[in-house]
Design goal:
Length: about 300
């Protein structure tokens, strides 16, 4: 019988990548989603059946934060993360043969705005505000479950870079239209990770049965926003990039219904635990990541 992996919230940018990768490894991939054609979040019986006898449960579920933080969206962002995590925890409790590892998404934005020093799992300072409250509630939901047969890992994922979606699409468009200069002060840190490393880190955690708890899922060499935009222009061979001052970003964010926090917060996050445990990054520098992602552009 095939080994089984369950992708909860597995229809987005990261989920589609993982589905293809695990299929290629020969896994039976089950997907829990609000989209038709997959196991519904409302069908607890099917969720338990999917998770039972699985090798690995990966939870990526959650409403996109690329929206205005009004009351309705805030409620949906929080609920879509904590409620799904609780559904999965209770489903594991109902399994007679639970998965050995449950990897739950978290976010690198749990740390404070940092331009003075990097944030690690041991020495990082938790921030404040709505996004941090969501991250804390998300992790609390995961670690509230007592699951003696299942290791639990919260992956504090940085901004994920890959070929077919995610943040690369708007970044490429900015550069193409000559707006690829620094955004805001340009000094804010940009912590990132290549989508292939997200996948490889999950395999690494699966194979290292002694590991659990919180891990920063970010490349070891974050850059400033100014360096990010410069790298993008170089790889895309665009000479000119006009800067975007904070006031313009504030105006634009209202028009396109998003928040400037996604660009202006300084995320300086280092994967100290992963490197200490021996994980070797496939894409450790932004230049190598962008060269791979944009090679067909």
């Amino acid at each position: 019988m095939k080994s089984k992996v369950v992708l909860a919230g597995g229809t987005g940018f990261i989920g589609q990548y993982l589905e293809e990768k695990f299929n290629n490894l020969g896994y039976d991939v089950k997907i829990i989603s609000r989209q038709v054609g997959h196991i519904s979040w409302n069908n607890n019986t099917e969720i338990v059946e999917a998770i039972n006898h699985s090798e690995l449960l990966i939870n990526l579920a959650g409403k996109s934060v690329d929206c205005r933080y009004n009351a309705k969206n805030k409620q949906e962002i929080m609920k879509s993360r904590t409620e799904t995590t609780n559904i999965l925890g209770n489903a594991i409790l109902a399994c007679d043969n639970p998965p050995t590892l449950w990897i739950n998404s978290s976010t690198a934005t749990i740390y404070r705005h940092a331009e003075d020093r990097p944030m690690t799992e041991d020495n990082g300072e938790i921030g404040s505000g709505f996004s941090v409250d969501v991250a804390k509630a998300w992790e609390n939901a995961l670690f509230s479950f007592d699951l003696p047969s299942t290791r639990k890992v919260a992956l504090r994922i940085a901004i994920v870079l890959g070929e077919n979606g995610g943040v690369m699409t708007p970044f490429k468009n900015l550069v193409r239209f000559g707006l690829g200069g620094p955004q805001g002060p340009g000094t804010q840190r940009f912590s990132w990770i290549h989508i292939e490393d997200v996948y490889q880190i999950m395999l690494f955690l699966k194979d290292h049965e002694e590991l659990s708890g919180v891990f920063n899922c970010s490349a070891p060499n974050p850059v400033t926003n100014r360096e990010l935009m410069s790298h993008l222009r170089q790889v895309m061979n665009v000479k000119v990039g006009l800067p975007s001052p904070k006031w313009l970003l504030e105006l634009g964010s209202v028009i396109i219904k998003t928040e400037t926090e996604l660009i202006l917060k300084s995320r300086w996050v280092i994967p100290e635990r992963l490197e200490r445990e021996g994980y070797k990054f496939r894409f450790s520098t932004l230049d190598t990541a962008l060269q791979q992602i944009l090679k067909k552009s």
